[in-house]
């Protein structure tokens, strides 16, 4: 049965028979749990580095300094570069692992990359929970980073390659949904373990990281690799059988033939890294591989979630109240992500980016203004309960805007715009850039807060304004476009079409064939 045709912005794109079967949903759900371990670490580290018993054991000098210092400037609390570097070590480890994930996923497939990631994370969580000295603790944290780096490389690719084009956005956003679930779970765990007498509750929090890791490890044994990955490794019959199973139809000839043709073309690219950076054919995709994760971190979201307990404590909340407030923002994050799940394939990627970005800009301006009016430039004084609740409210509005825009779209867009020939390498670039700037922004956040004061929120607001303009002018719409057809989107875009390199000596039929090959 030939592929059907859908109309998208006056362009007709091929689509294939099939729907979201229970099996493909199960496969994508297992892969999406990779987001949970990433989110869990983001949320857990914030509570961990503010736990007194943990600091006393592993960072005694810093703990003593915190006990001795009396700080009246509300902007300059909790500033320790060593402690922040410990938190950032996971992301730096994930950055390196993300680069090595490209050859791993090409050689062994997305499925087994997920399995190795889960095992690394499982071992890291166990070492962290039983750690008796700093070396064991750091080793465990670096292994956690390896697991995170491999997961956030393989998970979005796995989901995008398994999902039908019409529901790719919805299924891919499961990854971001799991990140929010991980952050919320970490906040709840931190709140609960802080009540445990004896000061060992932080060990329980680290040990709980084994749960999502075990789900990925066992689940990856029960799911197949993607048809794209199977074809690339010469397992054509297994790919055809998998494709029929995930599409829920017997006749998958059209899609299978397109994928096979695309795979043959991709094999002609012997050095995908060289082709990506120096070949000249993929300038639009490379631009988004770098800029989307770069901009995602400059929204300021990770510093809000990463340091939520610290931030709320800084603006006047008590220890318990700050943890409760971070749980509230975590809940908002989870439920707001469902908006993207339900609408990404209906209103499109651009609409969510633009609406969410506008909401985030307004929220950041208001949060910065409220803090500035209360503490001024000097950072002295106390915050009233009314002001504190206003800050929590608009932080929640900001988190909601992120949760249905830059959160899910920041992972969805890179996973669906790369041609097969450079897809794995480009995803590694995305992961590396994301992890580097996660670590970098986390490292300088408290220093920036101390120096920029309430202007820090204006700083991030200005970046969100810039990236919203970038999206409005330069991002083409990719909703419901099959991966095999995405290259058409770039060729029709007013700006990016001038960077698409095609040989002028090819005839029309040859050109159409090459377009089809590049679009996979």
From TrEMBL:
Entries under PROSITE patterns matching the protein: MFS, SUGAR_TRANSPORT_1, SUGAR_TRANSPORT_2
Entry GO CC: membrane
Gene3D superfamilies given in the database record: MFS general substrate transporter like domains
One Pfam entry name: Sugar_tr
Bilayer topology: Multi-pass membrane protein
GO molecular function, one term: monosaccharide transmembrane transporter activity
Localization terms from the record: Membrane
InterPro entries: MFS_dom (IPR020846), MFS_STP/MST-like_plant (IPR044778), MFS_sugar_transport-like (IPR005828), MFS_trans_sf (IPR036259), STP/PLT_plant (IPR045262), Sugar/inositol_transpt (IPR003663), Sugar_transporter_CS (IPR005829)
SUPFAM superfamilies: MFS general substrate transporter
Domain Major facilitator superfamily (MFS) profile as annotated: residue spans: 27-479
Transmembrane segments: 20-40, 46-63, 83-102, 114-135, 142-159, 171-192, 204-223, 286-311, 323-344, 356-375, 387-406, 426-449, 456-475
Keywords: Membrane, Sugar transport, Symport, Transmembrane, Transmembrane helix, Transport
Signal peptide per UniProt: none
Matching NCBIfam families: SP
Family, similarity comment: Belongs to the major facilitator superfamily. Sugar transporter (TC 2.A.1.1) family.
Protein name stated in the entry: Major facilitator superfamily (MFS) profile domain-containing protein
